[in-house]
Fold this sequence. Notes:
Layout: H1 26-54, H2 63-79, H3 85-91, H4 96-110, H5 119-141, H6 145-160, H7 168-173, H8 184-204
Helix pairs in contact: 1-2, 1-3, 1-4, 2-4, 2-5, 2-8, 3-5, 4-5, 5-8
Domain Tetracycline repressor TetR C-terminal: 59-201
Keywords: Transcription, Transcription regulation
Protein name: TetR/AcrR family transcriptional regulator
Amino acid sequence: MRTTLLIRGPPxxxxxxPASGSAVPRQVVEGVQRLVDGMGPRTAVADRILLSAMDGxxxxxxxxxxxxxxxxxVREAFGRHPQLAAVWGRYASGGTGSRLVMEELLQALSTSxxxxxxxxxxxxxxxxLVAALVASEAAIGTAPPPEREQGLELFRVxxxxxxxxxxxxxxxxxxxxxxxxxxxAPAFEEILAAQLADVEATIAR
Length: 205
């Protein structure tokens, strides 16, 4: 049974426009305010999930193990609340939970041997990768059983119904190709490991 996180406390603070004399147009300021007003509650809940993911966390192992541990914690936490994973993947969050995740990933990368000037870009790639994988997995997990079964049937038709004359590679490998919803956990870890290996290769050069 899934639990529901409840938001308690004051609403998000209003957006504060730049000081007078700023060149930022009024329309931009108003647009940001609407974004904060509209997304605040959902991003606040997403941040609570990140906060729960980091609860009790203690850095252990080398930098790759630390990054992997945080990513798996985030995946597990949003796996319990998949309906919010897409919100986090689309809008991120700006609270303590988000800061804890960012801080640990940046600290881990700082011990990897990467030059400081490369760490922000590498962090961004990791964040995009993890958010995309978590949101994708959540989208599959929240689909009702009839919809999932329909998706599997469409996958079978696309793969096994392909004309060998026009799709020779698909015909050759089709029986070994898994649908997107299969073996998500090992796929998550292998994709993340490949990204970390790329970082490591950059350090070695």
